[in-house]
Design brief:
This protein is an alpha+beta fold. The chain has a domain of 108 residues. It is 24% helix and 19% strand. It contains 2 helices and 10 strands; from the N terminus they run ββαββββαββββ. The protein has a 4-stranded antiparallel beta sheet, with no helix packed on it. The longest helix has 31 residues. The protein is elongated, with a radius of gyration of 23 Å.
Length: 189
């Protein structure tokens, strides 16, 4: 079997990627560094690769060892657990389109060529299958619907819901930042 690479692109909000907590399901955004963009694309691709172990159970080919923290609820999860439902559906549509192309090219089109025309003889065979349709692979542009919060612990930035008034945990190290600082402001809120 040959390897096939699928490039999936997600819209960014001025360099911020939307994330979703696997526990509380609240969304936030993280500011990406250049290397992180490539790493995330590679991790998403690998998260769809599954291999079967000797005990008969399926396991992800590569699991991330870095833990991340939800800015809202403070729960930690593997670094690959933060995709939004829309991002997962978008990536899956790309995978399903690749499979549809492969089935159409390897099976449907050859059968149509071989058995799609009228044949003569005692038992004519005719194939009238149709090609698998491809799914739409478009995501709306990312809007600027959140406010920036500076994470002094890691020197990074995230965007959070402007209505959130609780503690903000650092996505990267988990440090809890109080709801307000001494001046009554929260980062760049």
């Amino acid at each position: 079997m040959s390897d096939t690479t699928i490039r999936v692109y997600f819209p960014l909000d001025d360099g911020y990627l939307r994330r979703e907590c696997p526990y509380c399901r609240r969304e936030f955004k993280i500011q990406l560094l250049e290397q992180e963009i490539e790493d995330l694309a590679s991790r998403l691709e690998k998260s769809y690769l599954v291999e079967e172990s000797k005990d008969g159970e399926s396991h992800s080919v590569e699991e991330s060892e870095e833990m991340r923290t939800c800015p809202y609820c403070g729960q930690q999860a593997d670094g690959d657990s933060w995709w939004t439902q829309e991002q997962l559906a978008h990536a899956m549509a790309h995978v399903e389109n690749l499979v549809a192309d492969m089935i159409n090219e390897q099976f449907i089109r050859p059968l149509k060529r071989e058995f799609g025309r009228k044949t003569s003889g005692p038992a004519p065979v005719r194939f009238e299958g149709r090609e698998l349709e491809k799914k739409r692979t478009w995501m709306a542009p990312e809007g600027s619907d959140m406010v920036v919060f500076d994470l002094p612990c890691c020197g990074r930035k995230i965007k959070v819901d402007p209505a959130w008034s609780g503690t903000i945990h650092c996505f990267f190290c988990g440090f809890p930042h109080p709801p307000t600082d001494a001046a009554g402001d929260r980062g760049n809120l």
